[in-house]
Amino acid sequence: MHMRRAGQRGAPPLNCGVSRTLVGPPLIPPTLAIGEHVLRPFRSSDAAAWYAYLSDPRVIEHTSWPPITFELITTVVEKAIADYDELRSLRWALARKHNDELIGSCGYTRWLREQGTAELAYDLAPSYWGFGVMSAAVRAAVEWALGAGSLSRVEALVMTTNEPSIAVLERTGFRRERLLTGHRLARGVPRDFYLYSVSSHAG
Fold this sequence. Notes:
The chain has about 200 residues and is of the alpha+beta class. It has a domain at about 15-150: Aminopeptidase (3-Layer(aba) Sandwich). Helix content is about 25%, strand content about 35%. The strands form two sheets. It has an eight-stranded mixed beta sheet, sandwiched between helices. It has a two-stranded parallel ribbon with strand order 1-2. The protein is built from five helices and ten strands; from the N terminus they run ββββαααβββαβαββ. A hairpin with a 4-residue loop joins strand 6 and strand 7 (about 115-125). Mean pLDDT is about 85; it is low at about 1-25. The radius of gyration is 16 Å and the shape is globular.
């Protein structure tokens, strides 16, 4: 699944923990522990591990990722790191605790502070599929965003053919809102997406 800013400059950096309220950017993303894994800020050195599994056609088949190259992934990593400063996006590396190796990514490719909303995206190395790792990561990312992150709504766009990703969203409390016909190009072909969301006042 792949989905794609507001903020004011001049505030001092925050060491923002999960239990603290986000006051203003720039932001150092918190590290969130998830069992044997952790969501942590991206580093430039993560590009190689991310590229290694994103270049597997199975990972991007039902997503809007463009053709994967190492140059593309290096650029995406550097953009993710640069965006932390102005909180245009907030994406974490999902890594194993024991060796800190990236096995996935999870977070927000668009972070709209003034609107109180963000767009979730995630992906995972195939060797970790089916173990509930991404569901746990999504729960942690959403809990943080609706709490310490001060958002009121998280959205996710998922290709209608991406059944595993749909299952993750529905398992973690997202609700399907509507079908978006031909909403995004997937390697040059318009594809249909579902819009899912979860909010701080959902009940």
